[in-house]
Amino acid sequence: MNVQILNCGYTGVARASKPVLDMFEQDPNAKTFPFGISSTVHTFETGDPKYKHLENKTFVGNGRFIVTQNPFSITVESRISEVIPSCDMD
Questions:
Q1: Which parts of 1-90 are beta strand (E)?
Q2: Would you say 64 and 77 are in contact if contact means Cβ atoms under 8 Å apart?
Q3: pLDDT (mean) for 52-63
Q4: What pTM did the predictor assign?
Q5: Do 61 and 10 meet the contact criterion of CB atoms below 8 Å apart?
Q6: What total number of domains does the chain contain?
């Protein structure tokens, strides 16, 4: 068995609002948020040469929180895009 590890990390910011606070307080009326509630920056780390190129790229994301009840849980879902440098001025 050949195991390959791809570590994915991210940091982000979410708009502070009453619905966001309700979610973190596990309010029973908390609901899923649409995309756009958070902006993120993603990084990748690996020892596998097949994915090593990902470590030298910039990725940004747009996220949302999916809230479920009984039991209460929060899932973070992100749409991730690679930032490609402009060559228009070359």
A1: 6-14, 38-46, 58-68, 73-83
A2: yes
A3: 95
A4: 0.74
A5: yes
A6: 1
